[in-house]
Amino acid sequence: MLEPIVIEKLRAIVGEKHFMEHTEARVAYSYDATPMLQHLPDGVIFPSSTQEISRILQVLNEYKIPVVGRGAGSNLCGGTVPVEGGIVMVMSRMKKLIEIDTDNLTATFQPGLNTKEFHLAVEKHGLFYPPDPSSMVISTLGGNIMECAGGLRGLKYGTTKDYVIGLEAVLPNGDIIRTGGKLYKDVAGYDLTKLLVGSEGTLAIITEATVKLLPAPTYKQTMLAMYRDIHDAARTVSAIIGNRITPATLEFIDNPTLRVVEDYNKIGLPTDMEAVLLIEQDGVDEGLVNKDIQEMIRICKEQNAADVQLATTAEEAEKLMMARRSALSTLARIKPTTILEDATVPRSKIAEMVNAIKKISEKYDVQICTFGHAGDGNLHPTCATDARNTEEIHRVEMAFEEIFEAAIQLGGTITGEHGVGTVKAPYLEWKVGSAGIELMKNIKKAFDPNNIMNPSKIFAKESRKRVVIHQ
Asked: For residues 160 and 419, what is the distance between their CA atoms, to the nearest angstrom?
């Protein structure tokens, strides 16, 4: 529990109603979108400015009280669960769109701004912000930055780290720093901007960000390729990339996911197919967009697609994209607990990874639906289970351990966009090695010597032993 002097100091900074310690508030901010993970904070605070955050962190650092920055809590790695108690700092009062600079093609905003609202505001200017996480309707841009969010357009356009060019942040001791700016070229010293993007709130609190924008693509075509063999679909992904085509979106959806999504959305998805590829191409030249689409249709058929359909209207295309974006929420209807991961492999290894996931799910007798951003190798194996069934949960955990190991053996990683947080911390050493872990810990210590910034995230007390997979 917090000392009375700490409560008094925090309330003096933000006002009586913007610091809460009653049970209802503590419970409301004790969990995020990650299943089976909940810890009560000691208090919840709602700052309104960079200066307030600076003063808050000075107090918390003095008393060595943990602090967890939070946006909408839509992350899937336990990143905003206060596992060591302390204070949850909610950024919902800092949601201003400060500027859209059409001369420099940049935008500047506060971290609490809703992702979808930002996209719509930018599009009114004929501009385009590519990172589009599936949670964009509810997520905040600050959360996207902390997790380095990706999305359906990651193959062609990259992820959040490719667009953040300037940050304002508050260090644990209350110091305010600015990194980068409205500059497309800046090599002055270490790249602190890139270091903070994806740091999961373990180094500093982001209070303002500047991102680069692109001219909006003028033309767009969307197609659906259907397969009776899941491996043909996976091989098509490699074939498209191997033919030097980079679509804006190249998504993979397996049959179990298809059936649930169609049952919910009723848009005519082919539930008798083992898998589909949802492919979209965009650009400023209609001829080039159509050329790419026709070439991809040829490749799909060459790789044994049972059928290929082009969306004939913008509304039909949007329905297809929304069906993919709703995959997680619709899968959550199968059973009480839905565990979604994001093992990522090189694009050329998609077929092998899909095959490995299928074998592992059969080995442990668990239902794993697979969908994801196949074009950039980022698959989302998703298990519908029940947290009350402890024996099944154990099998699910063992299955995901083997999935992570399979990804690494194929040259991949344990997470492509969801982050490490608490959930994957025990497996981080599998990817970066003990020397990498030690280097990261030293960076964390340099920023945060008292370890108050989102403690117990990224770094596990003990790494899990590697599993052995017999191919």
From this structure: 13
Looking at the structure, do residues 108 and 168 belong to the same domain, yes or no? yes
Beta strands in 111-163 (DSSP E): 127-128
What are the phi and psi torsion angles at 326 (to 5°)? Answer: -90, 5
Contacts of 459 (CB under 8 A, 6+ apart): 425, 428, 437, 440, 441, 444
32 neighbors 82 (Cβ within 8 angstroms)? no
> Is residue 91 within 8 Å of 112, Cβ to Cβ?
yes
Amino acid at position 322, single letter? M
Reported as a single tens digit per residue, the pLDDT across 338-390 is 999 998 999 888 889 988 999 999 999 999 999 999 989 999 999 999 999 99
> What does DSSP say about strands 275-283 and 249-254: parallel, antiparallel, or unpaired?
antiparallel
Domain coverage including residue 366: 334-418
Strand order of the sheet with strand 164-170?
97-101, 106-109, 205-212, 164-170, 176-180
The token pair at 141 is 């841009």
216 half-sphere exposure, CB direction, 13 A CA radius: 14
Query: Within this chain, do residues 264 and 200 fall inside the same structural domain, yes or no?
Result: no
Q: From its phi and psi, is residue 64 left (phi > 0), alpha (psi between -120 and 50) or beta?
A: left
The CA angle 222-228-231, to the nearest 5 degrees, is: 85
Taking only the tens place, the pLDDT of each residue in 153-194 is: 999 999 999 999 999 999 999 999 999 999 888 899 999 999
- Same domain (yes/no): 316, 368: no
CA distance linking residue 466 with residue 460, whole number of Å: 15
SS3 429: helix
Q: Report the chain's C-alpha Rg in angstroms.
A: 22
Spatial CA neighbour of 87 closest among 4, 34, 19: 19
Tokens standing for 84? 């060591």
Domain with residue 269: its CATH number is 3.30.70.3450
**CATH number of the domain within which 179 lies:** 3.30.465.10
> Please, which residues have CB within 8 angstroms of residue 237's CB and are 6 or more apart in sequence?
250, 252, 277, 347, 350, 351, 374, 375
As given in the structure block, the two tokens for residue 228 are 């009776």
Q: What share of the chain is helix, strand, coil (3-state, %, to 5)?
A: 40, 20, 40
* Domain finish residue from 215, 234, 267: 215
